[in-house]
Specification:
Elements: H1 11-24, H2 38-41, H3 47-51, H4 53-63, H5 68-88, E1 93-97, H6 104-107, E2 116-121, H7 123-135, E3 144-148, H8 156-162, E4 171-175, H9 184-197, E5 203-209, H10 211-214, H11 223-232, H12 246-252, E6 256-261, H13 263-270, E7 286-292
Parallel strand pairs: 1-2, 1-4, 2-3, 4-5
Antiparallel strand pairs: 5-7, 6-7
Helix pairs in contact: 1-5, 5-13
GO molecular function: methyltransferase activity
InterPro entries: Ppm1/Ppm2/Tcmp (IPR007213), SAM-dependent_MTases_sf (IPR029063), SAM_mthyl_Trfase_ML2640-like (IPR011610)
Pfam family, one: LCM
Amino acid sequence: MEKRIENNVSRTAEFTCLIRAFSFHEKSPQYKSFDNIAPKLIPKFLSPVVKIDFLRNIFKKRFFPPGMYEYVIARTKFIDTVFQGAISKDFDQILIFGAGFDSRGIRFQGLNQKTVFFELDAPVTQKSKIHQLKKRGVVINPNIVFIPIDFNKESFKDKLLEYGFDRNKKSLFILEGLTMYLDSAAIDNTFNIINEFAGASSEIVFDYIYSSVLRGENIYYGESEVFKEVKKENEPWSFGIEKGELGSFLETKNLQLIRSLTSEDLEREFFKDEDGNIIGKVNGTHCIAYVRK
């Protein structure tokens, strides 16, 4: 059976964009993020839902699995910080795998004119994004290089070379909401190519799920609901890392850990109020790893 993204816009990409649009209009500093482009990319009929508090709250409860709204907000904020850090440190290249409707190359383009941004994604989703940006009058940063790829038929390595991604330059690789959709062979291939192309002091940020989620053990907050949702959309998860074994995984990829964040870490970092109380519970299935070559 073909996966949905081969013929249609990725539901995962739409889901992430919608959450970013919602969070842009939040009033709470813990829930508010700063993707001002996302509200322009969602269907226009959803604009009132995004902007009006009580409609937004009803929609969130009805359509988002428990804790995934909070998780995507925290992940967006954390990777925004990593992205800006790479630009401020004069990284030569930033490559976003499965970019979906990501807008960092537009939002942060004024910070550094040197860094080149590469966005790799399935053609249908990428074309939809470019069309929507132009339709809504969003000026596309000329430093963004869009790389369309049919993952079933085309070589990821060849595509990078074809579109001018340089070997051995200081680069940031972003795998946001991606690893869980790959199989083990694809994971190995992806990290092998990253190692081949990454220059000294290059960095990688990726998120992943626990392997127990794939086994349906239902240990974590919101696990059964989110797992059911991705299966329903024919974009099932297929890769995870056992709890406590991130270090072993990174060792096989010749990578060094900078930071590791569990759902509890994300709650403490992004959802504490002024009194130190946790006001948002993050879906427990996901973790984030920030690493260096």
